[in-house]
């Protein structure tokens, strides 16, 4: 797509209420949101809730209770376990008074400056000069989230089956007039792991994630994030999507999604 479907994912209505724009729509329907913007909106709320200097949100888990409509949403956050070095936050998204998603987030103290960094993953490939068009994904609705993101594949594609690796960045901010934080940029992308690493035939099977967990050992640097994703599935079981996240300096976190795998039903 040459232009994104909207200039932002969400328009603020007041402090805790947001209008969802067409850019939030997922690949399965123009009426329901992709989990990326939903996760990022909850993560943004965690960062803004009673901030404690010297701490960071290190892990976010989002439970998707029902398909989230492209409609006005209200965000609520509370502290479940307070603490100066470790605290647990809980958030909910509501549509017309009904909860549609819940999340927990661990806020922990940042490590001291003298901690020696460790690196167990190879450096990501360079950012490709040209992008992979998303309009070739058969049967998918591409005029929402897929077009609001820029994708540059180095392995696989939306149309192929197998592990995939792509550099990606949002083409619009999460909330109008506000710069995205590193956590928000990671969460906007994270729920795409099952699509980037797709190894199941979406035309023959219903594959939907019930949740997404994002754990970051450091904050990403820069606007581009590299996702290296794959899906694990078994007969008589379910499936897991697993991905690593990296910036040009190296890996900074991981993503895990639990997936429902079933036959398509009327």
Automatic annotation (TrEMBL):
Ranges of residues in domain Acyl-CoA thioesterase-like C-terminal: 131-261
Stretches assigned to the Acyl-CoA thioesterase-like N-terminal HotDog domain: 25-107
Matches recorded under InterPro entries: ACOT8-like_C, Acyl-CoA_hotdog, HotDog_dom_sf, TesB_ACOT8-like_N
Pfam families: 4HBT_3 (PF13622), 4HBT_3C (PF20789)
Transmembrane segments: none
Name the record gives this protein: Thioesterase family protein
Organism listed in the record: Actinomadura miaoliensis
């Amino acid at each position: 797509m040459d232009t994104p479907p909207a200039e932002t994912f969400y328009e603020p209505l007041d402090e805790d209420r947001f209008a969802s724009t067409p850019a939030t729509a997922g690949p399965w329907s123009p009426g329901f949101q992709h989990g990326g913007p939903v996760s990022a909106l909850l993560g943004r709320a965690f960062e803004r809730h009673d901030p404690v200097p010297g701490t960071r949100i290190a892990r976010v888990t989002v439970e998707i209770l029902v398909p989230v409509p492209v409609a006005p949403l209200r965000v609520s956050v509370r502290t479940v376990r307070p603490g100066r070095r470790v605290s647990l936050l809980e958030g909910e998204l509501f549509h017309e008074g009904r909860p549609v998603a819940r999340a927990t987030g661990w806020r922990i103290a940042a490590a001291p400056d003298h901690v020696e960094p460790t690196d167990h993953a190879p450096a990501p490939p360079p950012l490709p000069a040209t992008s992979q068009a998303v309009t070739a994904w058969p049967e998918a609705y591409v005029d929402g989230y897929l077009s609001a993101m820029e994708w540059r594949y180095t392995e696989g594609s939306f149309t192929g089956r197998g592990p995939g690796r792509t550099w990606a960045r949002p083409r619009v901010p999460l909330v109008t007039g506000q710069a995205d934080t590193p956590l928000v940029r990671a969460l906007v992308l994270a729920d795409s792991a099952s699509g980037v690493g797709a190894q199941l035939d979406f035309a023959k099977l219903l594959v939907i994630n019930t949740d997404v967990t994002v754990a970051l050992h450091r904050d990403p640097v820069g606007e581009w994030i590299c996702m290296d994703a794959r899906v694990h599935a078994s007969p008589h079981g379910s499936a897991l999507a697993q991905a690593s996240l990296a910036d040009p300096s190296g890996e900074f976190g991981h993503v895990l999604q639990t997936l429902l795998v079933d036959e398509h039903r009327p």
